[in-house]
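# nightly structure sweep
# worker-07 picked up a monomer target from the shared queue
# config: single-sequence mode, recycle default, output format = structure tokens
# input follows
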Amino acid sequence: MVDEATDETMRKKPAPGRTRSNDPAAMRARVLDAAAEAFQSHGYHSTSTHDIMRAAGVTGGALHHHFPTKKALALAVIRERVARAVEQTWIEPIRSANTAAQGILGVLEQIADGLEDRNVVLGCPLGNLATELSLAAPDFRDAIQDVFAHWRRTIAQKLRADQAAGILPKLDADAFATFVVASYSGSIALSKAEQAADPLRICARQLAAAMQTQARRSGRRRSNRGERTRAS
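# output follows
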């Protein structure tokens, strides 16, 4: 349910600890950051607009000027904060890696190390909101699907580049990309339930084994083609 109720006194003047700002963009960014952190820590439904106002240090009027409803705020969080997190954590490392396997396994290792350093597992921001909001409204589902689609598409593109370079065989890149994202999403959910990085590390080892098997098959095929060429 969208939480739109706001105390009128909060709309008129800042509460103690709040400051007025002449920078609307900075205020909007502060609200988004506060909402993203609250949704990740407590969930969308357990977070009220009052919680976000207090965390961001803004009035009700300022909040509703930028985000008329809690739903509008959540959609902006998905598109501007969660999507950016996926971009920085997954998309950029995959694109810059020498191979898909190097990128995927490097990301998983980095995430697992981070979980152990923080000693708390909050889960994947996208996965958490997907579980909570995908059935709440079509707008939520569409926004979440867009982020997942971009994530899978980037992995598939890297896999196709590896295929073109002869590193991987002619596997279904789209299907394998879905397998990678689904494997990570499931393992991070298990890590959250267990409050341990072990499920994520197990997932990384199994994905590594699967990709090594595919690479070996590709190597054998190249070797067989070379032998047939020499024989002819």
